[in-house]
Amino acid sequence: MADTEDPRVTRSREAVLAAARELLREEGPAAVTHQRVAARAEVGRATVYRHWSRPEQLLTDAMAGVRMPFFLDPTTPVRPWLKAQLRVLADELALPDVLAVTTSLLHGAVWNPEITERRDRLAAMIGGRLRASLEMAVRTGELRAAVDPGDAAALLIGPLLYRGALEPGPVPDALLDRLLDAAGTWADR
Amino acid sequence: MADTEDPRVTRSREAVLAAARELLREEGPAAVTHQRVAARAEVGRATVYRHWSRPEQLLTDAMAGVRMPFFLDPTTPVRPWLKAQLRVLADELALPDVLAVTTSLLHGAVWNPEITERRDRLAAMIGGRLRASLEMAVRTGELRAAVDPGDAAALLIGPLLYRGALEPGPVPDALLDRLLDAAGTWADR
Predict the structure, then answer these.
(1) Residue A12 maps to which CATH number?
(2) B152 contacts in A (CB within 8 Å)?
(3) pLDDT tens readout for residues B93-122
(4) Could you tell me if A149 and A109 are in contact, meaning their C-beta atoms sit under 8 angstroms apart?
(5) A152-165 and A96-111 helices cross at what angle (nearest 10)?
(6) Chain A contact set for B160 (CB, 8 A)
(7) Which parts of the sequence belong to the HTH tetR-type domain (chains A, B) (predicted)?
């Protein structure tokens, strides 16, 4: 329990968590390894292991309340930017730790209201960012007749989740293009 | 442990599991409730609860080794058949018990080799059936230039999984049509 814990232990735990959050925010889930977190927090790897024996657990705790880089700050033309974002996400979901955190979140959300809230926040964040990028594409004339904004995340990210969680293996460029084509009618194509 | 268990308890457990598998095979995961399984097995509900306190656990055990009805035996024209199948799957994934079993399978597969195998069998089964239905559509001239067969399941089912697991809510018909459109070029459209 925290209230009987040695204050030095509490401090080292917080330093590790802060470092994990920084790495998560700056580089995404793949960067949250014991080694890199220990280096960033300026503690030994044993200290990180003492608090979180598996990287997945550290990543789960770090994810709570951190803004993640996915689909943030779109640039024009939107389509190549979006394709690059989908590629990054597909590659992240291929990493066992990231997949473990993701599936743990999805499973926990079925039973635990606190995790449900965290999942809902994550889904709202990703959905909101995707919508914003598609709106930018519509505004600049790059995209006509886009998918219903409420369906954008399911359509674009669902297949990457399926590949990561059910059919491990590479996500070919052709699939990403097919998803982008399905997201609306693009100009110049 | 099974080898110290009263044989009558073992028999009632097997009767319940057999009933659960029948219901799963005949009607899909939604049918595997304590009440219906007890009625089918001709035991009291308390007997079902004694072995499986949550329907999710019973469903998980019943799923092991059962052929499920999804995407089985396509009929022509394939597109409306496929759309109806996707609708059923979307509705199943909206049920908390089904979602719990699914996410439990996906999460467990990250760590537990036995569950990984079960997940891989499920993914191969679904992927194989979907491919067979698209091949039938191509053979009958209904579909031209279909998606890479290896990507069909991710493309068609991924968005339903995303909606079920991350963005609970109805899957509109328009989204199903968009997915089917993305699966290839259909004749007569």
Answers:
(1) 1.10.10.60
(2) none
(3) 998 878 888 888 898 888 788 788 889 988
(4) no
(5) 120
(6) 154, 158
(7) 10-70
